[in-house]
Design brief:
Keywords: Cell membrane, Membrane, Protein transport, Transmembrane, Transmembrane helix, Transport. With about 270 residues, the protein is an all-alpha fold. It is about 85% helix and about 0% strand.
Length: about 270
């Protein structure tokens, strides 16, 4: 019997392949490519925008972009960490041949551990354990964590539009000065022209920066992270469905009235 369980455990461990996906590396490739292209094609315009914008909106857009980029990198590294933890924890469960109360309480917090806790709670009450609703909830929680970058992307585009309005208002004020100074005061005329051109520069530059950093770079990187988030949820759901749910269903039927949490993982192998 012991040899049979040991053989089953080895079979399970052999079928558990370590994920080869590296979300952070892929994210870095995309970020370097698109940020590099934008700096190559529009670097001079970005430099002029930062120099000529007296409203500070261009600088604000750039600062928010850097903060959002850092947050996006943090999110993608979190996804990599959770994928690695899921693989490691399932492997530990297979080797120990049981889902113990000690593991559920003392193992490193992770999405997989929380998922197993919920599945175990369901198994206490329903022998036909299903994870469909839990997977949807798990996806919603992860999406809520990743939503900040999408919000930052929209904010940058909106700030670009705000800069356009502010710049046009400044241009209108400069035009008024020019009209009043025509034929009378040359210095005032030149001052009005500078104010008009400065306002137009602000309008165009802020729109450009908001579109480049918010509408292009952050949206692309956010899509990359969301894609890996979906992949992570699918991976955790697959691990649970293949290695945990069948065992929980069998153990739930055999569970005694004392509510023992010790569940033999090797029972999942027929």
């Amino acid at each position: 019997m012991a040899e049979s369980k040991s053989k089953s455990t080895h079979e399970l461990t052999d079928t558990l392949n370590e994920p080869k996906v590296n979300a952070l590396r892929e994210w870095m490739i995309y970020s370097v490519i698109f940020t590099g292209l934008i700096l190559l094609l529009c670097g001079r315009l970005i430099y002029l925008a930062l120099l000529s914008d007296v409203t500070g909106i261009c600088i604000l857009i750039l600062v928010l972009f850097v903060c959002a980029l850092a947050r996006n990198a943090w999110d993608v590294s979190y996804i990599d960490r959770q994928r690695s933890l899921a693989h490691q924890q399932v492997k530990e469960l297979i080797k120990s041949n049981k889902i113990s109360a000690a593991f559920l309480k003392n193992s490193e917090p992770s999405i997989l551990r929380d998922h197993l806790l919920n599945l175990n709670a369901i198994a206490k009450k329903d022998p036909m354990v299903s994870q469909e609703n839990l997977v949807v909830l798990m996806q919603s929680k992860l999406n809520a964590r990743l939503r900040l970058t999408e919000l930052a992307s929209s904010m940058l585009v909106t700030l670009g539009l705000v800069g356009t309005i502010v710049g046009l208002i400044g241009s209108v004020g400069g035009i008024s000065v020019v009209v009043e100074a025509v034929g009378s005061d040359r210095d005032q005329l030149m001052s009005g022209m500078r104010e008009t051109l400065g306002g137009m520069g602000t309008a165009f530059y802020t729109t450009l920066l908001g579109a480049l950093f918010g509408g292009i770079v952050l949206r692309i990187l956010s899509s990359v992270v969301n894609s890996h988030a979906d992949s992570l949820i699918a991976y955790i759901a697959e691990l649970a469905e293949v290695y945990m749910v069948p065992t929980l269903r069998r153990s739930s039927r055999k569970r005694t009235k004392n509510g023992n949490l010790e569940i033999d993982v090797s029972e999942a192998v027929s």
